[in-house]
């Protein structure tokens, strides 16, 4: 059985937001924003240290809806920001 809560020493480094104000560029159907782009988009404060591979995936769904999912990519699958 896992403990109810894991204690993490020190202050929390991030607080998730809904990312409702982030949209896909015209003509794009899928994009993943990694560390620096998340800061540039205003989701995190300047100077925030985010873990490598941490990102936000935006995908265009049916009827033009935008799906937003927080992701964490490990190993060599994380692409650098473009």
Beta-strand segment tally:
3
Radius of gyration: 15 Å
How would you write the strand order of the largest sheet?
1-2-3
What fraction, in percent, of the residue positions are helical? under 10%
Succession of helices and strands: EHEE
Largest sheet geometry: 3 strands, antiparallel
Low-confidence stretches: none
Description:
This protein is mainly beta and 82 residues long. The chain has a domain at 30-74. 7% of the residues lie in helices and 23% in strands. The chain is built from one helix and three strands; from the N terminus they run E-H-E-E. Strands 1-2-3 form a three-stranded antiparallel β-sheet. A hairpin with a 5-residue loop joins strand 2 (54-60) and strand 3 (66-72). The termini are far apart.
